[in-house]
Design goal:
single chain, 235 residues, alpha+beta, 4 strands, 50% helix, 12% strand
């Protein structure tokens, strides 16, 4: 599921617990689901600073792997039905079986590693709270839950303006549906590795530091032109 930046800003600065519950309850979650969350360094700002137009200088991607305990078999079946093949079969790791309900793994892909760490943490904490309010009846100790956000070793930008393009590249590379199957029977470290390896492989295959960003920019132009043609043809 791809969450729009406007949804994240709403979640961060306009939602109380009732709103968070309603927002997360609207998400259809069975088994394992991944959430792609764009992170802006302004999301962690105070409400006053956030309200100032033009705030924010950097984008990154927070990938949340969310698993509802007891739904592993359903998730595995859905992968098999899609023809991707479930990795791990019935050998579900004990660490997965012991996870509390629900369990979330937070992977942060920042092309300027460390810049958006704090913003990613506050967004992850808010997302975690929303999910716990909606899907976990035992959320009395929600404020004391331990969360871990993994800073991933992903490709880095070599200029001051490609953060948005890197965020889009990460989202495209990691949206591969086979990765969802790979998360069903894996430890956290394995979930991290398969996503990082996939992104780095995609990045190299699409031109690496010399061409991946340019290719993505051209793809954006092509998509805009295609959509424009469709719109004009309807006129």
């Amino acid at each position: 599921m791809f969450l729009d930046p406007s949804v994240i800003s709403f979640m961060m600065h306009q939602c109380d617990d009732e709103d968070l519950h309603d927002l997360a309850s609207s998400w259809t979650i069975t088994g394992t689901k991944r959430f792609f969350i764009p992170i802006n360094d302004n999301f962690g700002a105070s409400k006053r600073k956030f309200g100032i137009p033009g705030g924010g200088n950097h984008w990154s991607l927070l990938l949340v792997v969310l698993m509802i305990q007891g739904e592993q078999n359903n998730a595995t079946s859905s992968c098999e039905e899609e023809g991707e093949g479930a990795k791990g079969g019935n050998e579900i790791d004990e660490a997965i079986s012991a996870r509390t309900r629900p369990h979330m793994c937070f992977l942060h892909f920042d092309s300027c590693r460390g810049h958006n760490t704090q913003s990613a943490k506050v967004v992850a904490k808010r997302f975690h709270r929303a999910v716990k309010l909606a899907f976990d009846d035992d959320n009395n100790d929600i404020d004391n839950d331990i969360m871990t956000i993994i800073e991933c070793n992903n490709p880095q930008q070599y200029n001051s303006y490609d953060c948005g393009v890197h965020t889009l590249m990460a989202a495209e590379a990691l949206s591969d549906p086979s990765l969802l199957c790979a998360t069903n029977a894996s430890e956290i470290e394995a979930i991290q590795k398969v996503h990082v390896d996939t992104l780095n492989t995609w990045f190299g295959r699409n031109g690496g530091h010399g061409g991946a960003a340019l290719s993505m920019r051209q793809k954006m132009v092509d998509e805009i032109q295609k959509l424009s043609k469709i719109y004009l043809d309807k006129e």
